[in-house]
Write a structure and sequence with these properties.
Helix content is about 70%, strand content about 5%. The protein has about 290 residues and is mainly alpha-helical. The protein folds into two domains: about 25-125 and about 135-140, no CATH class; about 140-275, no CATH class. Pfam families: Exosortase_EpsH (PF09721).
């Protein structure tokens, strides 16, 4: 259609302008509707008890983020993120049935995250939004299956070295023999759930503090180290109690786990939101002190 035709058809122009100015919420809703098969699979996986429902917390965080910025959503979306959303949606649709459902759903949640980033204000960092989208997947049981045992072995080895000065300790796989008592580092002690909550805390804190992507990416490695240290500490204390012949009761086991989890999440939140110290400002501070 030529420019002359557009002038002669004002109705077409009006419809075009109306479509171009469609509210951001409507665009995001259409994007979510296009990915409906992924949401159905995720809902079924949660409904049959195959995975923990922690992903709902990540979805709630994303919904809250959109709600907070609802009045500042862009009228003209970022074309790069919009193109990424379209490409990921197309890939998620075409590869469903070819890829494993979890991988196809990964493409879907990344497509939705890209659509959100296309309309969210520019100051909202992309890294925590993408991280929350990944955490929304029902992936804990898969992580437990593929990464649970290596994490349990790593935790058992670290506990072995920490307990060696106080007990006679031997390790075989994820099992410890402490002063003749057999202690198994089982699946709940792998730290997978603690890792999920640690990264969720990091993403939520980064969005709350309004951090830039560069800062978030620089501080993410600390999350893994903190989770690993917390999980090793929790398991070491539990194994030490078992080895000493004074195992904690069920409520004590839960209380210790919650206390360490709270400390880990607090440490992650502090590390993520702490002020950025630039070398130049540090040098000026030292000069003033001198």
């Amino acid at each position: 259609m030529t420019a002359h035709d557009l002038v002669r058809n004002p109705r077409f122009v009006r419809w075009g302008i109306a479509f171009d100015r469609l509210p951001a919420g409507a665009w995001i809703a259409l994007q979510a509707l296009a990915l409906l098969p992924a949401w159905v699979w995720m809902a079924r996986r949660l409904a049959d008890g195959a995975d923990d429902p922690l992903g709902l917390l990540a979805l709630a965080a994303l919904a809250t983020l959109v709600g907070v910025h609802r009045k500042a959503l862009r009228a003209s979306p970022a074309l790069g993120w919009l193109a990424a959303a379209a490409a990921l949606t197309l890939a998620a649709t075409m590869l469903r049935g070819t890829l494993a459902p979890l991988l196809a759903s990964l493409l879907a949640v990344l497509a939705l995250a890209a659509a959100l980033l296309a309309f969210l204000p520019r100051q909202v960092a992309a890294t925590p939004v993408l991280l929350l989208a990944v955490l929304a997947l029902p992936l804990l049981s898969s992580l437990q299956f593929y990464a649970g045992y290596p994490l349990r072995v790593l935790t058992a080895e670290a506990a072995h070295w920490l307990l060696a000065p106080f007990f006679t300790v031997w390790r075989e796989g994820s099992t410890l023999r402490v002063d003749g008592r057999l202690v198994i580092v089982d699946a709940p002690c792998s730290g997978v759930q603690m890792a999920w909550l640690g990264y969720f805390t990091a993403a939520a804190t980064a969005l709350w503090a309004g951090l830039a992507d560069r800062t978030v990416l620089a501080r993410l490695p600390f999350v893994g180290l903190t989770v690993l240290a917390g999980n090793v500490l929790r398991n070491t204390l539990l194994v030490a109690a078992e080895g000493a012949g004074r195992p904690l009761p069920a409520w004590g086991h839960e209380a210790l786990g919650l206390a360490v989890l709270g400390a880990v999440c607090a440490a992650v939140a502090w590390q993520v939101q702490r002020p950025v110290v630039h070398p130049l400002s540090l040098g000026v501070r030292h000069a003033h002190a001198a």
